[in-house]
Design brief:
The complex is a heterodimer of chains A (about 400) and B (about 220). Chain A has twelve helices and eleven strands. The model of chain A has no long low-confidence stretch (mean pLDDT about 85). Chain A is α+β, with helices and mostly antiparallel strands and about 400 residues long. In chain A, strands 1, 2, 3, 4, 5, 6, 7, 8, 9, 10 and 11 form an eleven-stranded mixed beta sheet that branches. Chain B has a single domain (about 30-50, about 75-225), classed as Rossmann fold. Chain B is about 35% helix and about 25% strand. Chain B has helices spanning about 45-50, 75-85, 100-105, 115-130, 145-155, 175-190, 200-205; strands spanning about 5-15, 20-30, 35-40, 60-65, 70, 85-90, 165, 195-200, 210-215, 220-225. The mean pLDDT of chain B is about 90. Classes of the chains: A alpha+beta (about 400), B alpha/beta (about 220). The interface of A and B includes residues 4 and 303 of A.
């Protein structure tokens, strides 16, 4: 007897696909289970990757070399303050490029008009500010102009984004005025949200000269923002507190605002892990669906199995046929799911204004996982189909 | 002289549970035979068909197909023997519902190691042989019962088997279609094929040149041609 002819790869695919083509609705439904699992996993990984990419891009734009200094509590529980000459002192530290300080005017409230009852401050705080604050924080104006050397001496004010929203002001102008304490100030500008210092979004900024003459500013800054040499940031960070308060350096808190953004990202990561687990469960359920479909298929197609055996198919060829069918079914679901996941990622990234980062290794791994799942789901039904004796398979008519 | 197409020597088939389906049966089918294997249901003729078709193995005795002792073959070798030497026609046709008549016939060569384009070419020839060349692209549900059975016959003969086994080929057909199918089997025989028809239809059996009657697992009479 000559060597047994083998089915070519093309024939194997044709034979494996024929069973699926015969029952398209069932194929679509079983593939759907796999598709949903893969789509969920790809979308979760993709959205998380897009979010990470956009944070990297944001941090790259804002820089991670910003430090903020605020007075901590004094040894005796009282509230410490920064010295009035904090700015010049910090500027003398080697490696510091830029310093901006703000001083909260805690006793003053900000109102839209004098018709508002006193005490309803709306959570808005007035701050004195250096003119370099805007460039130091890399903050952007939403409308109008930032303070300059001239306007800083007159009753003018620039509003943070939250402040402007609370007061109902969208654009500045010569006739747009707010009340700080009991002094009318003209609104010259409105800021966009400040990513590195969100606490300043609810601020109203006035110049130092103006604050000294009209708002009884005592000259003590409450927070200083420092841009320093990125390479030596750790050493510089150690130096800043002793520079401001040599006797009690622990009364000055030094923070790195970009850390807060990164920490938020890390919290998101934990959530991503959870969602990924849910996607994996969906995929598993999809795999069970494929196994179920294959078992039913083998039961229904005993006649076909018998016929193929009569036509000369070996047990191995019957096994291959059903295995290929399960793999094709599962892989179809995998490819459709990966495409769906990519679309969800792109759509979500677009809606968030992020750039879309498609996790190609994760997509490839997902599709490979569906193929593996097809093998696992199809193996037992395929072995059962191959074990069927030809007479047994043909006996049902 | 070439070996007989099929040869059974004192073949018995005992099913689990003690049912003696065949009892020491010996018969020979020569090249060019057109033979009816007839008998009432339960007589053992289906068991005989399974043994002739190598779908089943005897409990004792020797089955030779085309000179080859089947008991010496592995499962894969038996499958290869079926692919090469035996063509089956079933009462229920067993056509793939989603595939055209041409592809159904071409599947008759699927396990013989013939390339797809060659399979299709020979399938077209076989369809022409059974008079259905104009139905090549129709699906089974677009064909009548008689046409389906002729497609199934084309599938059985496309590989040019030494033995064509037809199991109740007219059982699911009306008499006109059945007569056409029987005529087709006669034509194939006239063209050189060896054909064995398993049937419980006495008239059909009586119309064929050679008859083997099976009763209670034994051969009743054998009428030489």
């Amino acid at each position: 007897m000559s060597g047994r002819p083998r089915l070519s790869a093309g024939d194997l695919l044709r034979v494996g696909g024929s069973g699926l083509r015969a029952r398209p609705a069932r194929m679509v439904l079983s593939a759907l289970g796999i598709a949903i699992g893969i789509a969920a996993m790809v979308a979760v990984v993709g959205i998380s990757a897009s979010s990470r990419a956009s944070l990297q891009e944001q941090l790259g734009r804002l820089g991670t070399n910003l430090l903020s200094l605020a007075p901590g509590n004094s040894l005796f529980g009282g509230e410490a303050v920064l010295p009035p000459n904090a700015g010049p002192k910090l500027r003398r530290v080697a490696g510091v490029h830029q310093v901006a300080s703000v001083g909260a005017l805690k006793d003053l409230s900000v109102y839209r008009s004098d018709k508002i009852p006193k005490g309803e401050s709306g959570g808005i705080t007035a701050y004195t500010t250096d003119l370099v604050l805007l460039t130091t924080l890399k903050a952007d104006l939403a409308a109008g102009a930032w303070l300059n050397a001239a306007t800083a001496r007159y009753p003018t004010v620039v509003l943070g984004s939250t402040t402007a929203r609370r007061l109902g002001i969208t654009r500045p102008g010569p006739h747009v005025q707010v009340l700080i304490g009991d002094v009318h100030h003209t609104v010259t500008g409105v800021l966009a949200p400040i990513a590195l210092a969100p606490e300043l979004d609810a601020a109203a900024f006035v110049g130092i000269g103006n604050a000294r003459t009209r708002l009884r500013f005592d000259g003590h800054p409450t927070t200083a923002y420092v841009r320093a040499d990125e390479q030596r940031l750790a050493q510089i960070r150690e130096l800043l507190a002793p520079t401001l308060n040599p006797e009690n350096p622990n009364e000055v808190k030094v923070l790195r605002p970009s850390d807060a953004l990164t920490a938020k990202q890390a919290a998101d990561q934990a959530f991503t892990g959870l969602l990924l687990g849910l996607g994996a469960v969906a995929l598993l359920v999809g795999g069970v669906g494929v196994a179920n479909t294959m078992i039913i298929s083998v039961l229904e197609r005993r006649g076909e199995i018998g016929l193929r055996r009569a036509l000369g198919a070996t047990r191995g060829q019957i096994r291959s046929q059903f295995l290929v069918e399960a793999i094709v079914l599962s892989a179809l679901g995998g490819v459709a799911g990966a495409a769906l996941g990519c679309m969800v990622t792109a759509g979500y990234a677009l809606s968030q204004g992020w750039q879309t980062a498609l996790p190609l290794p994760a997509i490839a791994a997902g599709v490979a996982a569906t193929v593996a799942m097809g093998v696992i789901a199809g193996l037992w039904p395929a072995v059962r189909a191959a074990r069927l004796a030809p007479t047994q398979a043909l006996s049902i008519t | 002289m070439t070996a007989p197409v099929a040869q059974l020597e004192r073949v018995s088939r005992l099913y689990p549970g003690g049912v003696h389906a065949l009892h020491k049966v010996s018969l020979t089918i020569e090249r060019g035979d057109l033979v009816a294997i007839a008998g009432p249901s339960g007589s053992g003729k289906s068991t005989l068909l399974n043994l002739l078709g190598t779908l089943d193995a005897p409990s004792s005795g020797i089955v030779r197909i085309d000179g080859q002792d089947v008991s010496t073959l592995s499962d894969n070798q038996t499958a290869a023997l079926r692919a090469r030497a035996i063509g089956f026609v079933f009462q229920q046709f067993h056509l793939a519902p989603g595939a055209s008549a041409l592809d159904n016939v071409a599947d008759g060569l699927l396990y013989s190691g013939v390339r797809l384009c060659e399979r299709r070419r020979r399938a077209a020839e076989a369809l022409e042989q059974v008079g259905l060349a104009d139905r090549a692209l129709h699906r089974p549900h677009e064909l009548s019962g008689g046409q389906k059975q002729r497609v199934a016959i084309a599938r059985a003969v496309v590989g040019e088997p030494v033995l064509l086994l037809a199991d109740e080929p007219t059982g699911a057909l009306d008499s006109a279609s059945g007569a056409l199918v029987v005529q087709l089997l006669r034509d194939l025989n006239a063209a050189g094929s060896t054909v064995a028809v398993i049937t419980h239809d006495r008239d059909l059996a009586a119309s064929l040149p050679r008859r083997i009657h099976v009763r209670d697992g034994r051969l009743d009479t054998e009428v030489p041609a």
